[in-house]
Amino acid sequence: MDENAVVRVVGIVLALLVYWAAPTSAQQGGPAQENDEYDVADLIRDWRHKPPPAADPPGKRMIVAAPIIGSNPSAGFTMGVAAQVAVFRGPPSTTRISSGIASLAISTKKQILFNARFDSFSDGNRWFIEGDNRFQRTSQNIYGFGTSTPPSSALSTDYTFVRLHETGYRQVARDFYVGGGFLFDSHTSVEPADTSNPNWSSSPYIVYSQQHGLPTDAQQSAGVSVNLLLNRRDDDINARRGWAATGRYRVSFNGFLGGDSSWQEFQADARAYLPLDSRARHRLAFWTYTSLVTSGVAPYFDTPATVMDTYGRSGRAYQEGRYRGEKLIYGEVEYRAPLMSNGLLGMVAFANMTTVSDSQTGETLFDSLAPAFGGGLRLLLNKRSKTNLCVDFAWGKAESKGVYLAIQESF
User: Fold this and answer.
1) 249 lies in which domain range?
2) What is the CATH number of the domain that holds 106?
3) Statement: residue 9 has pLDDT above 60
């Protein structure tokens, strides 16, 4: 199935949903109140002529599932399934929502991708635990460092990827947390997709690894981190107001759990949500993060790169690892708005920018940029957890583009 076919399928599904939802929207006769939002469960219940359910108790789990459909140059056509579980582990008035997403997908380039990520708040928000876990037999087009690398330099590489990132935080003041984490990244069975490719020995991966005394068949990193979090968003799944900022300092050790080098990295992430009306139905969302290798030599696949954030939602239009370097800065702005007064359908328009450095050529941050833009549709899967099904279309420089279908907002 090509990208045009994906677009047609998505369009047909959304058109049918609008058709079934339209009568209910018309009956409401005016703007929906925040507690009158209409989600897919309501749509199905009205279609089956079932009465509204009793109010859910605060501790009841909210579960949604949706297909994964996408198309990009790195993976080809991808399909699978994702599920989200959300729950309040205490009274909603004093406890933030916890959520976890698991997904399993396969691609036309023989990738098998299993991911499990979670954000969990204890009763009263005294503790916060987050995890980013990946088990993948995957591939990635590798490039040299810097934002000016041409598409023609791509060399497809296969490998097995395991990531275990677990971080725990303790609340020390209102909305402020201090914590630490365990971080393990493993890339094994690294080889060119075409084993007869004569350019493999001179590829950026081989050259970088040999220059820094790293093995070329497999590379691992293991270590710990110190973390800070200040969270003043009104919601952690689909924020309408507020902001959040995190900082992480990672230290990886040579020899620890098979780690191949000692190196350190600083990451900072900031997000803000600006309502444009009194009910925040129209709003702007801002996201920026910085990733800097501050000392030592990180294995090639652990250096800062596009789409390698926790949920893999940055840099829409670009593939994993398209732009890589010792330092990376990313920024994005997104406009979010409803398309239906009952909140069932919404839309977004976004623009993002990435810049990375290359110490070998002297390219510094902002010497070259990788911008992208796009838009998408939103379908409200669960109004209590505010979880959307997201369909996005994005375009970047050098004819980069992608189609994405996922659960939960990009940020």
Assistant:
1) 3-407
2) 2.40.160.50
3) no
